[in-house]
């Protein structure tokens, strides 16, 4: 083979290699953008807590963050003035497309629907849980999978 033919073949090989690398990078870039848009579109459904503690009127609190800590500590997202509640008593967290309730090793424990909470548990609308002397009723505002129910 003559020199110019080998040079042309080397040039074609280099161009095809760079074209392949460019196509691979464009494909990866599109995939990353698509995954980013998918993750950005995922939103945490709001959750509401109705708090009742011997007071005449229950109090409603609404949250849109993926984690809500309940306790006496003012740094908690849902601070409660109840001496029977630990500083950081329980946590509601949203993951795996569900809301979970977890006791944070509190002194008096947490009751979910009159049963002691031993491990993180999935909660639904109208579930009741009790921390100390305070009762909470959960309302999942964005819950479209379950129709609203009435308490009897």
Describe this structure in words.
By secondary structure, the protein is α+β, with helices and mostly antiparallel strands. The longest helix is centred in the first third of the chain and has 39 residues.
Strand content: 25-35%
Overall 3D geometry?
Answer: rod-shaped
Total beta-strand segments:
11
Distance between the termini: 92 Å
Radius of gyration equals 27 Å
Sheet with the most strands?
Answer: 6 strands, antiparallel
Helix proportion: 25-40%
Structural class: alpha+beta
Average pLDDT level:
87
Name the poorly predicted regions. 143-152
Helix-strand string: HEEEEEEEEEEE
Adjacency order of strands in the biggest sheet = 2-1-11-10-7-8
Number of helices: 1
SSE layout and pairings?
Layout: H1 3-41, E1 47-52, E2 59-63, E3 67-71, E4 78-79, E5 90-95, E6 98-103, E7 110-112, E8 115-116, E9 121-123, E10 128-131, E11 134-140
Parallel strand pairs: 3-4
Antiparallel strand pairs: 1-2, 1-11, 3-5, 5-6, 6-9, 7-8, 7-10, 10-11
């Amino acid at each position: 083979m003559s020199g110019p033919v080998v040079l042309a073949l080397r040039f074609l090989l280099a161009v095809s290699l760079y074209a392949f690398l460019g196509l691979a990078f464009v494909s990866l870039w599109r995939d990353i953008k698509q995954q980013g848009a998918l993750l950005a579109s995922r939103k945490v459904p709001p959750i509401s807590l109705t708090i009742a503690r011997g007071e005449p009127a229950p109090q409603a609190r609404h949250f849109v963050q993926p984690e809500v800590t309940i306790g006496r500590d003012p740094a908690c997202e849902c601070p409660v003035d109840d001496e029977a509640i630990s500083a950081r008593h329980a946590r509601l967290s949203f993951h795996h497309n569900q809301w979970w309730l977890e006791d944070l090793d509190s002194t008096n424990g947490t009751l979910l629907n009159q049963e002691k909470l031993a491990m993180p548990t999935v909660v639904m609308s109208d579930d009741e849980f009790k921390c100390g002397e305070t009762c909470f009723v959960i309302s999942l505002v964005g819950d479209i999978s379950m129709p609203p129910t009435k308490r009897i």
